[in-house]
Design goal:
Shape: elongated
Structural class: alpha+beta
Organism: Pseudoalteromonas undina
Radius of gyration: 40 Å
Mean pLDDT: 87
Order of helices and strands: HHHEEHHHHHHEEHHH
Protein name: TolC family protein
Number of domains: 1
Helix content: 55-70%
CATH architecture: Up-down Bundle
Strand content: 5-15%
CATH class: Mainly Alpha
Number of helices: 12
Strand order of the largest sheet: 1-2-3-4
Amino acid sequence: MTRTVIFKAVLLSATLFGAVFNSDAIAKVPTLNLTDAINMALNNEPWLSASEQKQAAATAQSIAAGTLPDPVLSIGLQSVPVDGFAFDQENMTQLKLGISQSFSRGNSLALSQHAIKEEALEQPWLRAQRKAQVKARVMELWLNAYRAQQSIALIEQDKALFTQLIEVTEASYSSSLGKTRQQDIIRAQLELTRLEDKLIILAQQLDAAKQGLVQWLPHSILSQPLSQAFAAPAPLAQFNSLDLDELIKLLMAHPSMVAIDQRIAAKRTQVSLAKQSYKPQLGVNMGYGYRADNQFGESRADLLSVGVSIDLPLFTDNRQDQQVKAAIATVEAIKTDKRVALQNLKGEYFKEVSQLERIKQRHTLYQNTLLPQMSQQAQATLNAYTRDDGDFSDVMRARISELNAKIDALNIQIDKHIIIARLNYYAASLDSLVMAELRG
């Protein structure tokens, strides 16, 4: 049998082995796809439940804040003589029952209730922001795991081919046919060992990416292999063509920015509430005094008293003025926080957009030029070797280079998907899954 026929048989058997192995694995083993991973993560995110409880607590507090304080009931003995403690000895002695009620300053009750309601309305936007963060993070982890899994599959497929090529070369060297040298065999075995090391590194990366998903997904799910096919994240906007005004509008609609706006609205209400401290506080009280008949059996009239109390905020320099200044300063501080947050979003967005443009250029270069050239080079060196016109080391180097190019192309594709997932975070206001609760 000629060397050409032998190598064709090796290539065919390795290819068929890889195809059968992969099809059997896909058919028999349950897999974890990207969509299911995202949905499970969002359903198992405890932060969202905590936020709902905070909103419920704030809503309950707003109801309490809009209610007048409870009236105060008092009862007691008044003007009892200490020389005999007789209830009928002195005219002033009486059993007194009183009730008093205080009222809020100006419109402070309604403003307190409104301020807490506005604070509660911040939570849905914070939940939307958290959903966008979790979705982007789960996508990145899943895609990194998929990258490692597919790289392992590529190496395993070529590893089977390299193993058979080494066996054929060793047989050729033992029979002293052709130009096979001992150093070719050693070189081939060395490359095979390097592939083993790459497999160990990739398995480590696969485990690390999957362990990152443990926060949301159970171990039983993560033990499954990832789906071979998945729906790549589609960009929510034409990121490369957005002008600055469109970008600012998009970022200002981001849940994190709307949450800050809601916080500012609540603090502005706090300013109005602080200004109510300049208004007097009103209180009313009423008392009824019961008097018994005197020692001679003469009736004594019961007593009724009614009063109004008003506190007068006359000295406002160290209290009311400072409270208003503090409330205004808090609003301004949050406005500054909003500007800082917007600048951070812009900076991260522009970084991701620039990377997306370069990664698309690399993807086009690999798919249209580099991968076809690598395949042609590998085939050419193999053809030359089968005709006794080339070295086996050249065959191995060409096949390794082609394998590395395939892995690089895979990395480029996954990096592109990850960048799009990150950019979609900045366009969270356009994500129906993230904004479903708010729009519902």
